[in-house]
Amino acid sequence: MEGRQCYDLLVIGGGSGGLACAKEAAQLGKKVAVVDYVEPSPRGTRWGLGGTCVNVGCIPKKLMHQAALLGGMIHDASHYGWKVAQPPHDWGKMAEAVQNHVKSLNWGHRVQLQDRKVKYFNFKASFVNPHMVCGVSKGGEETLLSADHIVIATGGRPRYPTHIEGALEYGITSDDIFWLKESPGKTLVVGASYVALECAGFLTGLGLDTTVMIRSVPLRAFDQQMASLVTEHMAVHGTRILRGCTPLRVERLSDGRLQVIWVDLASDKKDTGTFDTVLWAVGTVSVFILPCFQPVGLSVLSPVTRPPSGPGL
């Protein structure tokens, strides 16, 4: 156990909100520390400092959309007199470039914290008392941190529909799609949030066979006239839309592909399809650190989940 370190402000969570809070407080002359740790996804995906937007959200999504748009421009170029053949897309090359850019942003955030004299700790944290946390490193070493004020900014993670057989064993989420080193191939995206539609959009744009399965309405919290225009546009450009359907189970076939059995909720008719990848985009769980006030040696990270609210990641 390392000696206790004291701060004016301790921020648990190194995403957009946590980092902004820490840097602003440091600019006001406060002694500040940030604790951040990424629990690997069920597929083993992990990333660095910066939170969802930097690592598995806005930034890699926009870069992959740009890749898809460039493919569309090459396709359209012939209509403007350019004699350009449509080359096949290299997912591995794109993924490497996207991931290297994200890693540069991770490093940039660490440098910014250092420049503002904010101490960064990469470990799990749990409360010992209202003004003290215990951090546990990957190697099991424990460090006590105390602060006058503690901000919890741990964000959320994609939710797996664990009531569906095979969902957790064989599916991925937005935590994984941007870190795949190989093409996901023929993909089923389950969900109708903007995360689901954005992922399906760039996958289609990159030339992949992509299906979106929608249980009820797309973009529920958005204007439905605009939501209809979005899905109509996607369908015209090659995305298959399955409406009023919900998956029942996912099975792995002998060739390694995934067979999905689903039901049409209107007719109660079952159907099947074979895919290389199943991507779940069905809401989030929020993770909090509970003030458990346990003895330090028994301290643990305590997650609390809540039903997804809204269409976000």
Automatic annotation (TrEMBL):
Cofactor field: FAD
Gene3D superfamilies named among the record's database cross-references: FAD/NAD(P)-binding domain (3.50.50.60)
UniProt KW keywords: Disulfide bond, FAD, Flavoprotein, Oxidoreductase, Redox-active center
Nucleotidyltransferase keyword on record: no
Keyword Oxidoreductase set for record: yes
Residue ranges of domain FAD/NAD(P)-binding in the record: 7-284
Pfam family, one: Pyr_redox_2
Gene Ontology biological process: cell redox homeostasis; cellular response to oxidative stress; glutathione metabolic process
InterPro entries: FAD/NAD-bd_sf, FAD/NAD-binding_dom, GSHR/TRXR-like, Pyr_OxRdtase_I_AS
Gene Ontology terms: cellular component: cytosol; mitochondrion
UniProt family annotation: Belongs to the class-I pyridine nucleotide-disulfide oxidoreductase family.
Name of protein: Thioredoxin reductase 2, mitochondrial isoform X5
Gene for this chain: TXNRD2
